[in-house]
Amino acid sequence: MLSKFLKYLLLLALLILICPAGAGKAEISQENPSAIQSLAEEKLLMPVLDKDSTREKEKETYPFTETLLTELEEEEIIGEKYFRLVDGEGRIITTTGRRIRPGDRYLDEKNRLYEVYKVKDYVATARYIRTEKLKKPTLRKTSSSLLINMVTGKFNRDRKASYQDLAQNEENEEWPRKLVAIYHTHNAESYVPSDGTHSIYGRGGIHQVGAALKDALEEKKIDVIHSENMHLPHDRGAYRRSRNTALELLQQNPDVIFDLHRDAAPRDAYAVQVKDDWVTKIQFVVGRQNPASVVTRRFAYDLKGLADEVYPGLIKGIFMGWGNYNQDLTPLQLLLEVGGHQNSRDAAEESMTLFADAVALYFYGIPVGEEEGVFPPRADKRDAAGGAVTGTIAVIILLVAAALGGFYFVNNPGAWERFKEQIKLYLGRNGLAWKEGYHNLLLTMKSIVSGTRAILVYLLMLGQLIRALFHSIRRRLKKGLK
């Protein structure tokens, strides 16, 4: 009896051990392979690892090794075979050198969110999901290093500091540190009008665009680390090689990391006029394979929302596509597409100057305007800078008109008396307007309207002259500041 009991007990234990293993195998085998199969059928799945044990080891340490092409290749760029994202009616949403796949999402300049459901050749069709309401983020006067550490769980280098320890640091005079990091995964990317080619093997034009962002931030007393480490060649292994650079930058505990690129697209896809200057638009890229992509996307949304308030039209959109882009290291790492290869590098550098304003305001509360703590309004609102300038011009016109009127009456003593007599004749107690009734009143009103019209024409001409003078002075001051 005891032997039978032991036998059944051993059998039950064996079943308990076997069932979890079987369940695990079933769970793996039931994974939905449709997405991978569809990519393989489209000949987009291309392994990059060879038989070398070193590469195998890299794959183990870097689970997000890029196995899919994420951008156009050399021949495609030369042949201008760009990817076009269109809606259900064939209207172009955006044109880009990034490979678009089913499941990718795109938030356009007007914050309309689309999701790709079909890709054929170089045309991706997307369905409209909704229009996102990007709220103005809460601006802080302190460094966001604390925010980054809380999000990523990296409280400091030895990871032993507490929330209270870091919060106390904000009370120190050396806090905030204000540190931004910049690097370039694709060093060779360049701008045809300025560099003569779209790719230079070495430090391409994109490095000078990074230097422009560095200079603009440093003018605002923000420390910048601009890494010019090389990750050549420009292939699918570039992100694996640039990962070490990103890790080196993270050791310095920056508030944000920007990986600067330029897109491959026609000039019109990125050219935009902001105020009086032609610059390039900037596109944010968020990797869908990033485990913290929700936080990175929220960061991109917030930064775009703030940039839209400061410089409407500067941010082209947010591309949420296949890839990781080393954004798993920290959620506050953003890939920037600064213009396309057909735009000039000068325009890209100018856009970095504007983008620096948005970064400084977002992370450190440094205002774009002259008055600290005043949030700069949109250019299309009443209290915007343009409205202030118009009001100033109107005041100047009125003051000049009053001065001219005073000068005229001072130099013509009889004119003021004649003016008072005319007023008394028409509108006085016994004036013609009241004595001879409606007909004279109508004639009087016509005279007033005619005189007012002449004065308005005179003031308009004077206003145009003052406006031209104002713009001339503004341009000279701007050149002098540069």
What does this protein look like?
The chain is an alpha/beta fold and 482 residues long. Among the domains are: 129-364, Aminopeptidase (3-Layer(aba) Sandwich); 385-481, no CATH class. It is 47% helix and 16% strand. It has 15 helices and 13 strands. Strands 2-1-5-4-3-12-11-13-8-6-7 form an 11-stranded mixed beta sheet, sandwiched between helices. The protein has a two-stranded antiparallel sheet with strand order 9-10. Helix 12 crosses helix 13. The longest helix is centred in the C-terminal third of the chain and has 45 residues, at 437-481. The protein is elongated and about 95 Å long. It starts with a helix and ends with a helix. Residues 17-67, 142-167 and 370-389 have low confidence and may be disordered.
Largest sheet: 11 strands, mixed
Percent of residues in beta strands? 15-25%
Helix fraction bin: 40-55%
What is the CATH T-level topology of the domain at 129-364? Aminopeptidase
- The appropriate CATH architecture of the domain at 129-364 is 3-Layer(aba) Sandwich
